[in-house]
Amino acid sequence: MNILQLRSELRSGRTIFDLPLRVTFYARVSTDKDEQLNSLENQVQYYTELIQSRPSWTFIPGYIDEGLSGTTTKRRDSFLRMIRDAKAGRFDFIITKEISRFSRSTLDSIQYTQELLDHGVGVLFQNDNINTLDTDSEFRLVVMAGVAQDEVRKLSERLKFGFRQAIKNGRVLGSDTLWGYDKKNCVLTVNEAEAQVVRRIFDLYANRQMGIRRISQTLLDEGVTSRRGSAFNVLTIRHILCNPKYKGWYCAGKSQTVDYRSKRKVLLDESQWTMYPAPSIPAIVPEELWDRANALYRRRSQQMMAHQSAAAFHNRYPYSGKIICEEHGASFHRQVLKSKAGNREVWQCRVYRERGRAGCSAPQLHTAELDQIMARLFHHLTPNKQAVIDAVLTILQSVPDEHDYSQDLRRIKENLSALHAKKDRLLEMSIEGAISTAEFKQRNDGFNEQIRALEEKQSALQAEAAKDRQIPAQFEKIRTALEQELTRQEGISSAIVTTILDHIIVQKSSTKEVLHLNIHLKSGGPYRAVFDRRSSSFRFTPSL
Fold this sequence. Notes:
There is one protein chain. This protein is of the alpha/beta class. It has 4 domains: about 5-150, Resolvase, N-terminal catalytic domain (Rossmann fold), CATH 3.40.50.1390; about 180-305, Putative Large Serine Recombinase, Chain B, Domain 2 (Hect, E3 ligase catalytic domain fold); about 325-400 and about 475-540, no CATH class; about 405-470. Helices cover about 50% and strands about 15% of the residues. It is built from 18 helices and 20 strands. A hairpin with a 4-residue loop joins β5 and β6. α7 (about 190-205) crosses α10, α14 packs antiparallel against α17 and α15 runs antiparallel to α16. The longest helix has about 35 residues, at about 435-470. The chain is elongated.
């Protein structure tokens, strides 16, 4: 029978139990606790016996989801399989306990019951006394589903209120594994052994101007490890430096949940955070030191953003790190010499800068002269210039991709989904009284900390993946810039020098008047170059 025929039979006075239907059931519990599983077993037994006891009904094995939330249907495999089977015409009617077992989302409840009706399948929500085959069922379904959904919203608000009250009462919420502290019953005490490491990190960063990566390596060299025996990575050190708890302040509200059902969050601007000195949080570092470290962190972050990457920042000059003294193997450093005639940019061997002429005989190199030499060399290679361009691009494109960000991000997404599912189950356990408020809070805090760490890692990987997506466009820019050099009549751009130059070795035979250089290009060489400053003459030969 189709829906119209079924409804006609019901209007005639017959009940749903009198109609010849293929009937199945849907059962779900929100946790895998023994008492919940026993409830599930009872549900299965009850519906099996109920369906089989009706002579006019044909029993179809039911669909069961264990330990899954009703807030969303996305992770309920049996539920979704039931919907597919209904659309395939394998049964006519579904019995379930109540709307909250089916879904706590009004939208989901209406959507799925309507889809089922479109395929000739009705649903009986037994405890709510709603049969979707009844003509007034949709109105009553909206009301009851809205009640179920509102209960989740109210619980969420109650939890937020409880957290705010706990904060006012001096109880410290959040992770129980904060480095430098021991936490018991929402009370923080300083773990002096770990606190020494925290102070060490702030001292190295703020007082000794050491970068985060170098701090990580320094701690590793000193044998300092986390509680799990692993090294302090960059993210951990960054979290320590930026956490106001270490100066005795409470901080909350860094993110806001947009939708309690989807758990989607947005990060808030620092001006919107709730942050204030808290007597319940013992400081590990002075407030002045924390503020100074964070001012430095913001300044460095802005510099890094301005130069787009750490590599761009540290190699912002085309010859940085590429000029090497043959005598000492040391690199040349940039220096600007000021005079009445104007400023000159020169490069000096590090040993010469430290010890003077007695330490190194290598002459100063002028940037203007190096540009002239590179331009002459580049244009001397005119017959092979296109080959140079192609070779450079081939080298750049041949660099292997060390990270499969898509796989890493997929694993993080799966882990986040699993953690949110656990939070859903935990929430329902609290609602149903299966666990105490204290147990709920402890386990929920642990889940939140894991989610925070994964979200930080996710953001970092997404940033790296975004850089990788820009690589094809960058290659095209390089190609365009290189090809523009084909028409350049004189001089050479800094971008071209950066692109084609691998390194320059300043030979021991170099003097103040005559420079002897071995120039290594990314596409070939070395080329032995001799530059006479007195006559500005230049010659070079490929080295054998």
